[in-house]
Amino acid sequence: MNGRTKLTAALGVLAVALAALAGALYLTQYRPDTRVDDAMRAEVGQVAGAGAAALLSYTPETVAADMYAAQQRLTGGLADYYGRLTDSVIVPAARDKKISTHATVTGTGVSSLDEDSAVVLVFLKQETSSAAQPAPVDATTAARVELQRVDGDWLISGFDAT
Asked: Confidence band (pLDDT; 50, 70, 90) for 88?
């Protein structure tokens, strides 16, 4: 082998070694999904599901307390917005029109997750009745729920129902 062939071979070996090292580092050190475990996935799924159901469930007699309890599961701008919406729209309408709604989680799926944030898809069945429509009406809905870890607790920072 001449000098040029030896150099080419050495560079090839070095390139393969660096690629292997980069792959190993990515798989063991970088990937965010390797820093969370199944217990955390289950926890964020449960928190998102329970929170979504709470946001969508109330009776005319307990609507203010139900909405206040649901708001405690929220953080940031969503908590402020929800409080204003509750006071100005949901509570008066529920009381005036005797609206009762109950949401039940039928499934969850974690879309993304790292140590301090998560996005969970929540699937729900919702039964709603009112003075005008006393027989419960069933509907299915899905919600994209964004979670943030705040002081060790998972709180809802985004909620988009479809």
From this structure: very high
